[in-house]
């Protein structure tokens, strides 16, 4: 049956009907007073979501573009940075920094394991010359379903006194609390296609006063991503370049929905869906790739035994029109990932788990009891 497709991946995520319909409105001029009113409303709600007093800037880009914008606006040629890497996206930030000629040191952990704050502490305390200018961490590492202890790492960076705390919050913003001001985060980047419940195309960058001070002396090349221009125009509720107007319509509606739900309710919903998904996988005898104490609220990574991950994904897609994410790099074909981020509810989890049980049965998987996953998920969701 057509038009029954269901996204259960960590991005892009499902989009509410009201958000989709907002994009169907006639376009308006991006230099008009009407657009400025929309932008002012969006900016206020973005500050609320980020739990910050500073403005959150919007660029036409993906989350990676937002991260690049953040990095090139606070660093200079040859600067030394410390990058946390325990998955594909941590690896990507190291590559990004090297592309701009930065000196990159890494703190690494095995995929599926969290970054150890103690490793950051050792590197920062050894930096007597204060040569480390930024510490870059992926908060929610979706490639492995892991969330890193950002609060603890940020405290260590603050104690260093010189380095900036740069955060990839692409799949944590809108899924769990990322209190920018309270934790002392200096650059926080995210993208519209994740917890924001909006199609891809908008990147968000929030910067602290310390980051703006660094921006004044940054000499890395930038033009389209010169955030000083976005800040200057943002103060007048406009943009330096033509924005994706339809996505601004969508974002305004999505942020209104989030504001009505409330931060604590949003975070509690994601935690509940995460717990239900993990309980279901365990009940189905499907090994979880990350431990409970470091599990991402955005996605659950599963390493099945006795049946291939890609067979599961293919059957789910062909038979039930449900998309699961696959593994990346060396995990390709070894894991599948269930997204529970953004516009996802209890019904979606129960539907996906039911379809997964039927998929396992059709593939001849052994070692699970039909109905066990659904029962385990329902128990969590009913608590």
| Major beta-sheet overview | 7 strands, mixed
- Strand residue percentage: 15-25%
**Strand count:** 13
N- and C-termini, Cα separation:
34 Å
Which structural class do the helices and strands define? alpha/beta
Order of helices and strands: EHHEHEHEHEEEHEHEEHHHHEHEEHH
Task: Output the CATH class name of the largest domain.
Answer: Alpha Beta
> What is the multimeric organization of the chains shown?
single chain
DSSP helix fraction: 40-55%
What do we call the CATH homologous superfamily of the largest domain?
Type I PLP-dependent aspartate aminotransferase-like (Major domain)
CATH architecture verdict of the largest domain: 3-Layer(aba) Sandwich
Q: Averaged pLDDT, please?
A: 98
* Inertia-based shape: globular
Unreliable spans? none
Give me the side-by-side strand order of the main sheet.
2-10-9-8-5-3-4
Number of helical segments with 4 or more residues: 14
